[in-house]
């Protein structure tokens, strides 16, 4: 069982007092933030803001008072997809190129990574957009310029990253998508930045931006409105993009989640936590 940095069990840490007393921080002797809640009014970089989960996540963050810096490759498309709002900034960058990324993180308090590509060759792979470039190289380049002042990094990965050799994930990993996602996770863990890993099952519900079977079938969650979490990579099934985006929002401000990983699927049996922060916090704590 892993230990959360916010649990108070870390050594050589001290409380940080800011102008907003509700924002409790724990910092190392070198001044690196080990634990801090992200609050409304803070600015969140959403890497992959025009993707399916990214669009939902951006809208949810703006609705709750966060500032959002949408990191995209095409600023004009981002404006068409996301619209224009006072608290929405658009940052255009190609993460496959490591040059000039420092400016992307200026004024950012937290990072949400919701970038991904298809597991099998598709139109999205054209121009060097395969799994290695998308899931590993791009994240590594952004990670290298992430400041130590970040309060939290919420990294959305995938179910199966620790089961890439077992069926059916061995099929999904034929071109390395799970391998590269797992390597990116490990880089984040090794960085020492306060982080949370989110591992959803196969995504369903719109916006449909992928080229997988669920997209082709326009698969919706239907009666699967409840949420099932696990601390292990042991989930099977599908996850609603809506639920995944909400989980990421909730993990930004939840206590006792740093350094932890949450596998997530959508299930039948109830209405789920929806936007109720207290229900989400109980759900997070129930698996650790």
Kindly report how far apart the N and C termini lie.
7 Å
Total DSSP E strands: 13
| Order of H and E elements | EEEEHEHEEHEHHEEHEEHEH
Q: Helicity level, as a percent range? A: 25-40%
Biggest sheet, spatial arrangement of strands: 6-5-4-7-8-9-13-11
Q: Write down the overall mean pLDDT.
A: 87
Structural class determined from secondary elements: alpha/beta
> Over the alpha carbons, how many angstroms does the gyration radius reach?
18 Å
Strand content: 15-25%
Please give the count of helices.
8
Overall geometry comes to globular
List low-pLDDT spans. Answer: 1-5, 7-23, 210-217
How can the largest sheet be summarized? 8 strands, mixed
């Amino acid at each position: 069982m892993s230990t959360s940095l916010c649990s108070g069990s870390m050594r050589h840490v001290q409380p940080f007092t800011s102008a907003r007393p509700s924002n409790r921080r724990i910092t190392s002797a070198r001044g690196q933030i080990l634990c801090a809640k992200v609050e409304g009014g803070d600015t969140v970089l959403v890497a992959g803001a025009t993707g399916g989960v990214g669009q939902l996540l951006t809208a949810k963050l703006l609705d709750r008072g966060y500032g959002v810096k949408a990191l995209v490759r095409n600023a004009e498309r981002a404006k068409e997809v996301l619209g224009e709002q006072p608290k929405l900034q658009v940052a255009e960058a190609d993460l496959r190129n490591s040059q000039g990324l420092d400016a992307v993180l200026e004024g950012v308090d937290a990072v949400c990574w919701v970038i991904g590509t298809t597991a099998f060759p598709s139109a999205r792979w054209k121009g060097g957009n395969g799994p290695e470039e998308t899931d590993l190289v791009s994240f590594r380049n952004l990670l290298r310029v992430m400041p130590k002042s970040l309060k939290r990094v919420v990294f959305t990965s995938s179910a199966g990253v620790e089961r890439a050799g077992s069926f059916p994930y061995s099929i999904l990993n034929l071109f390395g998508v799970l391998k590269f996602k797992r390597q990116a996770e490990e880089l984040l863990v090794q960085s020492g930045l306060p982080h949370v890993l989110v591992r959803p099952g196969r995504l369903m519900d719109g916006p449909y931006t992928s080229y997988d079977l669920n997209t082709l079938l326009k698969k919706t969650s239907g009666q699967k409105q409840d949420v099932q979490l696990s601390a292990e990579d042991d989930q099977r099934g599908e996850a609603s993009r809506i639920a995944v985006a909400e989980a990421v929002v909730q993990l930004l401000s939840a206590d006792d989640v740093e350094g932890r990983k949450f596998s997530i699927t959508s299930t039948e049996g109830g209405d789920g936590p929806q936007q109720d922060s207290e229900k989400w916090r109980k759900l997070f704590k129930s698996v650790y």
